[in-house]
Design goal:
Chain lengths: 284, 333, 577
């Protein structure tokens, strides 16, 4: 990030709030499982299950800060270990999308010609795919969905914007004098791409990827919400939201916790990404 | 212009075809619709019978070609399978035949016919809410730029974009339907007026994200426009503010809004999957989820097809709108 | 945008406005919390107070999944049955005590030939919805349709004891010899061997008569499943319209042979999940609910306001872990017993209070000869389980984990409960979650699934319906076995065959009691629980009562309209947040 962009970013209070939230949820994802006081799949039927079969509420049982979930598992531990799954899926899927998108975008923009035409047609095709619909079909079709299939499904379906932006930026960069010169000097293409083109593209990519993480969090939760996400008993925020649906009227808190975390994470990544975009690509 | 549209349309058909192909092979190399559809107590002969009837016992490529309508019909239960003159007819997409739903025991066209009007009702209410809320908020924010109401609205739009419907939906149901008793707790109702009453809450939830987006776009455009010379002149001449906004600013902002509506249409029509599920609104979205759960392949295919077409048409309309409204853009690929 | 403004100077007015805004938000929040709406603790609507049954109104009820068909010859699930119960009548029926009563038949049949022949006289004035009088020919024709190969009804096995039915089913005979129409109002059935379950079979929806002319016309025009779309029966309600997967509508049949139904219109909503249905019910959007979701069920159990408008009845079903008797280690009866004794079923009862009863034998509590004191009944006894593991030759447990097949979320929850229990006797469980379709396909094949969650819901109130189907060696097939634990026991087979033919009720029950004891002891299934159903209805819904066989029985309901919204008095207690 060059210093002007950095200054622009630092002045954007919203972006700073976003950054803070991003750091917070990412730290939850990284450290969550270690911070979790209990095994997230262990059922404390003796402690966290009230006589009426409902889980104990927050603070009823010492040590179980947020009480139990529908199966008498420690809610806090599940939220924390769910953070790992949700963040992992979001980051990995985004990384995959960035990998595909940037590679194809660079190729398309740098080589141009037919390659470019075909690749952009491919982008059009993928873009015309109903994202959620295809993801649902794929998840349904892979009978036992795991974290990896979700990442791949989400990543493979969402690299298009990145490819387009990379391509545009690459084409811009390609016309720059010094890159023309480098080409004329016979520098290796890979070297030119890596040394001279990529740095021009990196800023917008980071901004888009950040917003994409937010989209991935939403997508993963949506799949889990439709029961097509991670397999139980693994927790993710989306699957916790799904599990708590049947208790919505009686124990809304089980819906509220994951809902809050999802919203907070998405909100953070959106704010942060938007801030980055404004910083890299000021309108004036 | 005409050439461009034709080109785009042709390209659109190609794209839709490739999506259909992909999904078709996804579904038919995977799960076993016959067993899912026939249910727990089905016997082997029944399953075999079902497969034979639906042509599921044929090789997948043949099923696909027959589905497209370039190969004679393989579905034994189709009237096309045995015509009086002994020649097998075609019963595929090319003939406008979407097939028979496995689980609804009805033609896919009929099933979609039931569902589409409801989804359209929901979608049109949602667009209405999006426009009314979004544009109003956007105009207020732009006029009161950098004041606290602007900040609040912009903050609100961020929250609106960040709240998925599976978060807002259940909470709205809990609050406005169950605790306050203002709205029915999901569903579609039994009589026509009832339908609209039942649609209000889901439409509102569906509209949140769109309204937030429109508000942001409207604000940006309006701010941009207000700085244009002719607007300044108009203001300087003493034209009252509401009129300035009506005459100049909104017209300019309509372009990107129209584009956005065009682009969001397919998502409203086919993509309200989660909202319809939460509110048990029996439209296309719910149909999609149901048919995917039961692996009702013909319905899934039809939904994918419709969605693909909607995306293409939406894109095309958006492009045309841009071209028609903005003379600076020339339509050439 | 402006060129970059420098850091904001201190502007008191601005900070003041922020402060005011914050104050306003805080006040608003406080107001919202203070006035937060409370959950309704009782019904939102009550009836108008008519003392005697009234005609009119629309009854709305729902179910959690799809109705498969309205063609009674294919109705083999609870929802299709519930819908068909409105549209059709058969020769026989059950009353609210589960006793068999005549319906289209004028009285119960005369039995002869040592329990092999049954003769029915039909009522006069019984009509199909198209207005035509029902004759014995209709009964006969309908059974022929049911049992023909081309129809392919799942009901065939229940009727194959009729003389000539198998030959007819195979297409070797033009008609079923054992069904004889004596005159327009008299019909006789002749069986191959004495089979006391046969009258139950005749009371099943499979045997409900359809009008021949209507069916033939429809099927010629629209194919075999057309009847399910435009059904015509003899029941108290006629068909209006059906949107598959969404709702079915019925209207009252004015020419019904018994007292006419009171409700004008019935709307049967499909695919409404239990939690949504419960919320709608408590909101007053649904008139009757069957199986509310867990939280709502607890609420309804404890709510005094709802107490007069709910009922809990054991459901005739059993839930279990099926153990594959052909595959190691469950080919060893001691390992099976060990599992049966290691499972602490009280956990299920504690987790789902009132929703389940611990099970120790295949027959549910309301079905004779269920015996709560059965000596061989399965129960939690860790010492006994460990002893059985020693007897099996695995004193230190199994070296390999067991793969337990589960059908989805609900099963997983149950399975996780017992993972810990089985670890105690050295059995590790790997869960294999598969879709319902895969589950059915694979567990129906021999030597595939080691262990699987399983269960059974009765078709008719007779022990044979559980035991013959689930554990007789006849029910083992290369694919789609009904005997999914592949249990073979010649002694049990002999007892079951004898019981089936036995005319004397007491002797019959004694035989089934013996079989029941063997099954609990041999443990092809480790029985887990029996379900308990809850029904609730709005105060303005009168005459509703859960039926022991049909469960959802809406024929006698009337509505006390117009309903009145109850005041705020019932809104007490916290929102539960």
């Amino acid at each position: 990030m060059d210093s002007r962009a950095f200054r622009r970013f630092r002045r954007n209070k919203g972006a700073l709030v976003g950054l803070f939230l991003v750091i917070f949820v990412t730290a939850l994802g990284l450290l969550g499982p270690w911070l979790a006081p209990y095994d997230p799949v262990e059922q404390f039927t003796d402690r966290l299950l009230l006589a009426n079969g409902l889980p104990a509420g927050p603070g009823v049982e010492p040590g179980h800060w947020l009480g139990g979930d529908i199966l008498a598992r420690d809610e806090l531990s599940r939220l924390l270990s769910g953070a790992r799954v949700s963040m992992l899926v979001a980051y990995l899927a985004t990384a995959l999308a960035v990998l595909i998108g940037v590679a194809l975008g660079l190729l398309s923009g740098y080589v141009g010609g037919r390659t470019d035409t075909y690749l952009m047609r491919l982008v059009d095709v993928v873009l015309s795919m109903p994202f959620l619909l295809i993801a649902i079909v794929m998840q349904r079709v892979f009978d036992a969905p795991g974290i990896w299939t979700i990442c791949i499904v989400l990543g493979v379906l969402s690299w298009t914007t990145l490819a387009r932006v990379t391509r545009a930026k690459t084409m811009e960069a390609r016309e720059l004098d010094y890159i023309q010169a480098a080409r004329a000097l016979g520098l290796r293409h890979f070297r030119i791409l890596a040394r001279h083109v990529l740095p021009n593209v990196v800023g917008p990519i980071i901004a888009i990827a950040t917003i994409m993480v937010a989209r991935m969090i939403i997508a993963e939760s949506a799949l889990s919400f439709l029961n097509l996400g991670v397999r139980p008993p693994t927790a993710s925020w989306g699957s916790m939201l799904n599990e708590s649906q049947s208790l919505l009227l009686g124990l809304p808190r089980l819906t509220v916790y994951p809902a809050l975390l999802i919203s907070m994470a998405v909100f953070g990544f959106n704010l942060f990404g938007e801030g980055l975009r404004d910083a890299f690509d000021p309108k004036d | 212009m005409m050439q461009f549209i034709l080109q785009r349309a042709l390209w659109g058909v190609l794209v839709v075809m490739s999506v259909v192909t992909l999904v078709f092979f996804l579904i038919f190399v995977a799960g076993d619709p016959a067993v899912t559809i026939l249910g727990p107590q089905a016997r082997a002969e029944q399953i075999a019978d079902f497969k034979a009837k639906k042509g599921l016992d044929q090789p997948v490529p043949e099923q696909f070609l027959s589905y497209l309508g370039v190969m004679p019909c393989i579905r034994k239960d189709s009237p096309k399978y045995s015509s009086p003159d002994g020649v097998r007819g075609f019963c595929g997409l090319l003939q406008g035949d979407l097939g028979e739903s496995y689980s609804h025991h009805e033609s896919v066209a009929n099933v979609i016919g039931y569902r589409l009007p409801r989804t359209l009702l929901l979608a049109s209410l949602a667009v209405l809410f999006e426009l009314v809320i979004g544009l109003t908020a956007g105009i207020i924010a732009a006029l009161r730029r950098n004041r606290w109401s602007d900040t609040a609205i912009m903050f609100g739009t961020f929250i609106g974009i960040s709240l998925p419907t599976y978060v807002t939906g259940p909470i709205a149901l809990l609050l406005f339907a169950f605790l306050l008793g203002w709205f029915p707790y999901g569903g579609y109702g039994v009589d026509p007026l009832d339908h609209i009453y039942h649609a209000l809450l889901p439409a509102l939830i569906l509209a949140i994200a769109g309204a937030a987006t429109y508000a942001r776009v409207m604000r940006g455009e309006l701010i941009e426009t207000l700085r244009h010379d002719h607007v300044r002149t108009a203001k300087a001449k003493g034209m009252p503010m509401p009129q300035v906004i009506r005459k100049h600013a909104i017209r300019n902002a309509l372009l990107p809004i129209a584009t956005l509506i065009g682009l969001s249409l397919p998502f409203l029509v086919g993509g309200a999957i989660i909202t319809e599920k939460i509110f048990a609104w029996p439209g296309l979205g719910l149909l999609t989820i149901e048919s995917i759960e039961s692996l009702d392949a013909p319905v899934i295919m039809a939904v994918v097809l419709m969605f693909g077409i909607a995306v293409q048409v939406g894109n095309l309309l958006a492009d045309i709108a841009v071209a028609a409204l903005d003379p600076r853009i020339r339509l050439s690929d | 945008m402006h060129s970059t403004p420098k850091t904001d100077p201190w502007r008191p007015a601005r900070w003041l406005s922020f402060g005011l805004a914050a104050l306003a938000v805080a006040l608003l929040l406080g107001w919202v919390i203070a006035h937060f709406p409370k959950a309704p603790i009782g019904p939102r609507y009550v009836g108008a107070g008519h003392p005697s049954p009234q005609s009119g109104g629309t009854l709305v009820f729902s179910a959690g999944s799809n109705i498969h068909t309205l063609d009674p010859h294919f109705a083999y699930d609870t929802l299709s049955t519930a819908a068909c119960r409105l549209l059709y009548d058969g020769l026989l029926d059950y009353d609210y005590d589960g006793n068999m009563i005549p319906s289209l038949a004028a009285e119960l049949p005369t039995v002869s030939d040592a329990g092999r022949a049954f003769r029915f006289e039909l009522r006069h004035g019984i009509k199909f919805h198209n207005g035509r009088e029902i004759t014995a020919h209709d009964i006969s024709w309908s059974l022929h349709r049911l049992l023909s190969k081309s129809t392919g009804s799942p009901g065939y096995p229940f009727y194959k004891s009729i003389v000539g039915a198998p030959a007819y089913h195979r297409g070797e005979a033009k008609r079923i010899e054992g069904i004889r129409v004596v005159d327009d109002k008299t019909i006789e059935f002749q069986l191959d061997e004495a089979d006391q379950t046969f009258l139950n079979a005749l009371a099943m929806p499979f045997a409900y008569p359809l009008p021949k002319e209507h069916v033939e016309e429809l099927e010629a025009a629209e194919g075999l499943d057309a009847v399910g779309r435009h059904p015509i029966g003899a029941g108290p309600f006629a068909f209006s319209r059906w949107e598959r997967g969404v709702q079915v509508e019925f209207r009252r049949f004015e020419d019904y042979w018994a007292p006419r139904a009171r409700v004008d219109r019935m709307v049967f909503l499909e695919n409404i999940s239990p939690d949504v249905a419960s919320a709608r019910f408590r909101n007053g959007d649904l008139d009757v609910i069957h199986r509310p979701s867990k939280v709502n069920r607890l609420f309804m159990r404890e709510s005094k306001a709802w107490a007069p408008y709910r009922a809990e009845v054991p459901s005739p079903s059993v839930y279990a872990i099926g153990l594959n008797c052909e595959l190691p280690p469950f080919d060893n009866v001691h390992v099976r017993r060990a599992v049966a004794f290691a499972i602490d079923r009280s956990k299920l009862e504690r987790l789902n209070p009132g929703e389940v009863l611990a099970a120790g034998q295949v027959l549910p509590p309301m079905l004779a000869p269920h015996d709560p004191e059965l000596p061989t009944r399965q129960r939690f006894d860790l010492q006994r389980a460990k002893k059985e593991m020693r007897l099996a030759g695995f004193p230190d447990g199994l070296s390999e984990p067991i793969t337990l097949w589960v059908r989805g979320e609900g099963d997983v929850r149950g399975a996780q409960l017992f993972q810990q229990d089985l670890k105690e006797i050295g059995i590790e469980i790997d869960l294999k979650m598969v879709s319902f379709a895969t589950y059915l396909k694979e567990t129906g094949k021999p030597r595939v699934a080691q262990a699987a969650f399983t269960g059974w819901h009765q078709d008719f109130p007779d022990p044979s319906n559980f035991m013959d189907i689930l554990f007789h060696s006849r029910s083992i097939h290369p694919v789609n076995s009904e005997n999914r634990s592949f249990y073979r026991n010649p002694k049990l087979d002999a007892i079951l065959d004898a019981a089936r033919a036995e005319v004397d009720r007491e002797k019959r029950l004694a035989l089934y009691a013996e079989a029941n004891a063997i099954l609990a002891d041999d443990a092809p299934w480790a029985f887990l629980s029996y379900a308990v159903d809850m029904f609730a209805w709005q105060p303005y819904v009168k005459g509703f009562q859960p039926h022991p066989v049909w469960l959802n029985e809406y024929r006698n309901v009337w509505l006390d309209l117009p309903r009145k919204r109850v005041g705020q008095g019932i809104y007490e207690g916290g929102a539960g947040l």
